[in-house]
């Protein structure tokens, strides 16, 4: 067929169309006919004619053809390309269902070309779907998948889920014919889900249910297939869909034949032929007639077998006769040539665009080079000015660095002065603390002098046996008290001097586990042992991944010694309370925590209340009796850890249960 004949084909189809009367088939059809009666002869009337024709497609294809031809003529008159393309596609769809595959193919190619030129995505999607149907009828399933996929992509862009369900079930049918059953089942499930989520309009419900039944039958799920077929039949009766009713009856007949129920198979095959004849659906007429021939031959009913054999041959020749096959080949060849020419035109146009883009790019590069040269000249001048400014800034920076060093030195002196000011504030408390031991020393010294130098008259008059011995005993006791309070005064002054120290010692890498163990041993052996009581139990858990840690060993050792001494003192105090079954325990552990090392000192001694724990790091605060502590040990330990090592010292305690100090210093 020549290109000239292809151009005349739409007009020829219009002239030979059947002028059959249009009859209403449902409420939607009646509503559209009432609107059509009042519609003017413009684009809106074209679209109404197409909508009305679509309602007759599955029950009265001749009416569909008649309305589509009217829509085509009106769209041609008013210059409505979108309507003309859609009418051409509907004419092709009606011809396909009548078995006129070459004419249907030609009309769909023309419709696709018109929709693409008018940028009608919905019309383009419909044409691709119709071309897929024709390819499916011709058993060209790969080509059908291509057209269905194009249709599916366009319906997705247009957000039209009911139409998208039709494309999905059609793709699933192609995969079923190709034997790719997993993909077929996946597409049918997708279509079923879309129909469930978007029940109106029910465009593809019967089609999707029937196709799902076919896949289930191929998978061997015969009972499930039967259920889908029966649901499809109910859907066709609800919508007067004779075309899908015919195909569903045919598949039911095939299923009953597989179940070895020839009577049921015969009934459904005859119903399939009857429904297909009403809508001139020759493909199902051919397939159902072929099945009836086999069924009647098995029954030895020659007349019926001969009748349906003739019906099969007529439908087959109408669909796939030699002349039809030649026409399809010619149409396919012409379409391929058109696509080749279109690609060549596109390639030439692309080449022209590329040359123009290259020329524009060269001009742009030339301008950029000129701008870059000018910018480089300005940059050189700016660099010279910048270098001059940098020199000036460098000199200012050197002056600022020198001033900063002087400021830091002054700051260090101010910190030391502030520390001494703090010591001055504490001097009143220190003096108060020193008054008591010094007063005791003075009193005991005066009494001792009086004992050693009594009045001779009083002495001769009151002398009694053993009096000298008593005086000596009292003298010794007074001297011991003087010594103890003097030592306490010395300890207070020594701790005060440590607090007032302004310098910092040099850090060095030490084995932290060894340092902890050494000071724990010194504290333990320096702690007095109570007679008749269990020895204090020591538990140690030193981390194995402890590397050499930078600390001031003498200062950190002093802090740890204070913590260990406090822990031993606490368990001794609880031990003196005579608690039954009490076993004094001091636990010490070390471990690495990120970039720090941690030392925990835990004891099960008397513990502290929250109020006491909040004050333990304050200078001169102590819970020990007078004469047993100065109140500066934990304060000094806190300064060593926090200020001297930039670490943390915290305490957790519960009165009558335990106390735990945690030391963390950078590793």
From TrEMBL:
**Principal EC category:** transferase
Concerning PROSITE patterns, the annotation shows: HIS_KIN (PS50109), PROKAR_LIPOPROTEIN (PS51257), TPR (PS50005)
Keywords, alphabetical: Coiled coil, Membrane, Phosphoprotein, Signal, TPR repeat, Transmembrane, Transmembrane helix
Coiled coil regions in record: 383-413
Read off the InterPro entries from this record.
HATPase_C_sf, HATPase_dom, His_kinase_dom, HisK_dim/P_dom, HisK_dim/P_sf, Sig_transdc_His_kin-like_C, TPR-like_helical_dom_sf, TPR_rpt
Annotated ranges, domain Histidine kinase: 429-667
Catalysed reaction(s)? ATP + protein L-histidine = ADP + protein N-phospho-L-histidine
EC number per UniProt: 2.7.13.3
Signal sequence region = 1-24
**Repeat (TPR) residue spans along the chain:** 206-239
* Record field: transmembrane: 356-373
Q: What is this protein called?
A: histidine kinase
Taxonomic classification = Bacteria, Pseudomonadati, Bacteroidota, Cytophagia, Cytophagales
């Amino acid at each position: 067929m020549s290109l000239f004949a292809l151009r005349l084909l739409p007009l020829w189809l219009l002239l030979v169309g059947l002028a059959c009367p249009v009859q209403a088939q449902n409420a939607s059809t009646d509503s559209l006919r009432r609107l059509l009666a009042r519609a003017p002869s413009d684009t809106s009337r074209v679209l109404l004619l197409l909508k009305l024709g679509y309602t007759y497609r599955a029950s009265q294809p001749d009416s569909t053809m008649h309305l589509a031809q009217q829509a085509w003529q009106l769209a041609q008159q008013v210059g409505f390309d979108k309507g003309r393309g859609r009418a051409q596609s509907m004419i092709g769809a009606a011809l396909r269902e009548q078995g006129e595959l070459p004419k249907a193919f030609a009309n769909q190619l023309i419709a696709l070309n018109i929709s693409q030129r008018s940028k009608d995505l919905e019309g383009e999607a419909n044409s691709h779907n119709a071309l897929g149907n024709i390819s499916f009828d011709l058993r060209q399933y790969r080509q059908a998948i291509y057209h269905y996929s194009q249709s599916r992509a366009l319906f997705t862009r247009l957000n039209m889920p009911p139409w998208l369900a039709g494309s999905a079930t059609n793709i699933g049918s192609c995969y079923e014919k190709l034997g790719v059953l997993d993909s077929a089942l996946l597409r049918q499930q997708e279509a079923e889900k879309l129909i469930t989520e978007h029940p109106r309009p029910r465009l593809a419900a019967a089609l999707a249910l029937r196709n799902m039944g076919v896949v289930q039958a191929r998978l061997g799920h015969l009972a499930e297939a039967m259920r889908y077929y029966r649901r499809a039949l109910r859907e066709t009766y609800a919508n007067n869909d004779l075309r899908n009713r015919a195909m569903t009856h045919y598949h039911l007949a095939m299923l009953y034949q597989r179940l070895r129920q020839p009577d049921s198979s015969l009934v459904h095959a005859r119903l399939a032929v009857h429904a297909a004849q009403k809508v001139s659906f020759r493909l199902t007429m051919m397939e159902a007639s072929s099945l009836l021939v086999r069924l009647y031959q098995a029954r030895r009913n020659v007349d019926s077998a001969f009748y349906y054999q003739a019906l099969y041959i007529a439908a087959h020749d109408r669909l796939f006769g030699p002349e039809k096959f030649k026409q399809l080949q010619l149409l396919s060849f012409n379409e391929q040539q058109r696509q080749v020419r279109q690609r060549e035109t596109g390639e030439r146009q692309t080449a022209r665009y590329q040359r123009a883009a290259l020329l524009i790019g060269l001009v742009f590069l030339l301008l950029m080079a000129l701008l870059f040269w000018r910018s480089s000249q300005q940059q050189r001048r700016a660099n010279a000015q910048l270098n001059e400014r940098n020199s000036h800034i460098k000199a200012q920076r050197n002056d600022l660095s020198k001033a900063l060093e002087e400021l830091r030195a002054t700051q260090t002196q101010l910190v030391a002065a502030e520390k001494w000011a703090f010591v001055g504030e504490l001097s009143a408390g220190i003096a108060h603390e020193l008054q008591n031991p010094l007063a005791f020393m003075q009193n005991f010294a005066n009494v001792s002098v009086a004992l050693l130098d009594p009045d001779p008259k009083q002495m001769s008059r009151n002398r009694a046996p053993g009096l000298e011995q008593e005086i000596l005993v009292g003298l010794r006791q007074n001297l011991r008290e003087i010594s103890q309070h003097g030592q306490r005064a010395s300890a207070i002054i020594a701790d005060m001097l440590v607090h007032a120290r302004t310098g910092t010692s040099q850090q060095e890498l030490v084995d932290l586990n060894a340092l902890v163990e050494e000071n724990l041993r010194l504290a333990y052996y320096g702690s007095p042992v109570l007679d008749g009581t269990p020895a204090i139990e020591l538990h140690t858990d030193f981390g194995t991944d402890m590397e050499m840690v930078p600390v001031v060993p003498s200062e950190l050792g002093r802090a740890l010694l204070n913590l260990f001494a406090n822990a031993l003192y606490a368990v001794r105090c609880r031990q003196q309370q005579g608690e039954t079954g009490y076993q004094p325990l001091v636990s010490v552990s070390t471990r690495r925590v990120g970039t720090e090392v941690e030392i925990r000192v835990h004891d099960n001694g008397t513990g502290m209340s929250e109020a006491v724990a909040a004050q333990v790091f304050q200078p001169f605060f102590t819970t020990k009796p007078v004469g047993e502590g100065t109140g500066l040990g934990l304060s000094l330990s806190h300064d060593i850890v926090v200020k001297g090592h930039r670490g943390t010292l915290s305490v957790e305690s519960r009165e009558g249960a335990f106390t735990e100090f945690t030391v963390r210093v950078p590793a």
